[in-house]
Structure formats: structure tokens, C-alpha cells
């Protein structure tokens, strides 16, 4: 007959008692030998977790305890009276942990605090601002005078990327910062374009010195001309679709207002997504630019001036690049209509082209760079 598995008790207390609470996972009155229990110290407002004492000494939170005997742990908290203000942009929280001071000085002066962002579901940490900069996680700050930290969170954008119809991957979609272009550019005139937009002509030179202070594409055409064009509006009965793929602007009061509206739409994305009945769940620059163009032009359709090019030509991500022939000449594998993964060749010359297959561009990146730098 096998000996019964020993069981042990795990007691946990908070010091001081009013500072917070402890949760255990799994939670039980006794635990079989070898059970791993996770204890999490949760501080109340104006308190910060410092360390575990008792049968497990640690500054980790949560801490994992392996039951090999009866154990008692104490979660020690300290009063948060150091001058540190944390502001949240987006959805999330920041966990604060006091780091022991090697000089031996007592708190609060000179307190070193480790800050760890905790994004809410569907969000991710973007960057620090204020008294901290960068994107490092966690980040330490010495509070030797009043500090103001901004933790910026951004929505997780995921979409399906195709490398032709053979390969589909769900990856992060980084398509959210075009609204900063106006403030970033030091120039009187600026053309902003996506890295997957190949310049195969000098057509964009017609923008410089133009009478229109802001121009975008709303006329878009697939290079095969036979596949359905669903990009004229944001949905079947929605507003005009403006593409942020290529944008020309001058530093004027009007364009600054336009980009301010784009920022406002981005910051209030759930509201505008519902208001304009936008498809899918991801944030796109194209959508916020379309809304801004609609608002800034008195809610009229197609009122924002088009770039001085007949239209923007694009491929799909189920197409592929066959070869780069010259700086103005490319040959594409274009998928046949209603025939998956079956292609015909299309030579494209002297007309700029938006390539949606990112892997195709990556495969030919070295050739492209060599040609452009010659």
C-alpha cells in the first residue's frame, strides 16, 4: 500500500494590515506536497509592494511557492509618499515596485522605483514620456524630486498578411502614426509615403509648389483591372475612401487642423468606428484620413483634392514580384481572377505602384536598394 501524499498549509499575511491584500492560485486550505502556488500581492491606493518575508524571501511579485512544508509568508508594503505622478494614455496600468537603495538611506528621498506597464486586453505598451523616455520595460526612476511620468498604451492591431494565396500569417499591424507627420516634418512641403509604395516615375514631382495645400489619393485601381474595386468608399454606403499611402501637404493652418482631426479620430477610435460603420476591428490610417477629409470639407464626398496623378495603382497581397528590371520597371506575378495561386505575368513600367505583399518586397529589397543608390 502506497504512503499517502503529505499535505501542508500556506499562511499569508499583509504588513501593515491596511496596505493591501494577497491572492493565491490555486486557493486551498491545504496543498499536496510538490504543489506550486502563486501568491500575488495587490497594494491598496497609495501603497507599494516592497518584498516577501517569512519562509520565502523575494522581491518578485507574483512569487511562486513550492509546497514541501508548512509555510508562512508576509507581503510587506510601504507607504507611497514619494513625489511621483503617473499619467496613463490609452488603456492600462503601471505597477510600481520600490527597489532597495544600495546607499542604505531610508525612503522617501532618493527612492528608486521600478515601473512596469500592464496593458489592458487588446492594448500594448507603446512608450514612456515626461520624466522617462524610451520603451524599456521595466523602467527604473530615481525620485529625488517631483517626477511626472506618462505611460502610453496603444491598441493592438492584428491583420492577416498574405505571401500569395499559399501563406497567411496573423501579425501586428503597425499603421497608426501617420497623424504625427505634420509635427515631425521640418519642411514647408512634404510628401509622406508608405515603404511598400514603389516610385517608378517622377510623377510626384508635380506636387512641389502646387496650389493645393493637401492632396491624397481616392482614385485607386488594381493593375489587373478585372478584380473587384471595393476601395471607393469605406463600406458599401460609406464616405469616400482616402488612402494615406501617399500624402502631400504644406505647412499651413488648414493642414495642421487636418492632422489634428486625424489625431482626434485615432484617440477616439471606438466612437468613430461605430459612427462611420467602418469594417473590421483594426485601426487604419486610411480610415482616419478619410474621416478627417470628410469633416474638413463640410461632410462632402470627394472634396479633398486628388494628387496630380490619374490614380493610385495597387496589387493584392496574393500577387508576387517576379523581377525588378530597372528603377522604373518591374514584372509581377498577378493572380488570375477566380483562380487561386495561378498567375500570369504583368510588366509594369513608368507608373508608381503600391505593393501589398510585404514578403515579396523583402525578397527583392537588396535589388531595389542597389538600383536606387546607383
Written account of the structure:
- The chain has 374 residues and is mainly beta.
- The protein folds into three domains: 7-79; 84-155, no CATH class; 158-313, no CATH class.
- The chain has six helices and 26 strands.
- It has helices spanning 181-184, 253-267, 269-275, 285-296, 358-363, 365-373; strands at 7-8, 10-15, 20-25, 31-32, 36-43, 47-54, 63-66, 71-79, 84-89, 92-99, 111-119, 123-130, 139-143, 147-155, 158-163, 167-172, 189-193, 197-198, 214-217, 220-222, 243-250, 312-314, 320-326, 329-335, 343-349, 353-354.
- The chain has a three-stranded mixed beta sheet with strand order 2-8-6, with no helix packed on it. Strands 3-5-7 form a three-stranded antiparallel beta sheet, with no helix packed on it.
- Helix 2 crosses helix 4 (285-296).
- The radius of gyration is 28 Å and the shape is elongated.
Offer a few descriptive terms.
374 residues; three-stranded mixed sheet; 26 strands; three-stranded antiparallel sheet; 14% helix; 6 helices; mainly beta
Q: Count every helix, treating DSSP H or I runs of 4 or more residues as helices.
A: 6
The amount of helix comes to 10-25%
Q: Could you tell me the radius of gyration in angstroms?
A: 28 Å
Name the overall outline: elongated
Low-confidence stretches: 103-107
Main sheet characteristics: 3 strands, mixed
Taking the alpha carbons of the first and last residues, their distance comes to: 82 Å
Structural class: mainly beta
Mean pLDDT: 88
| Lateral strand order in the biggest sheet | 2-8-6
Percentage of residues in strands: 35-45%
Count of strand segments: 26
- Count of distinct structural domains: 3
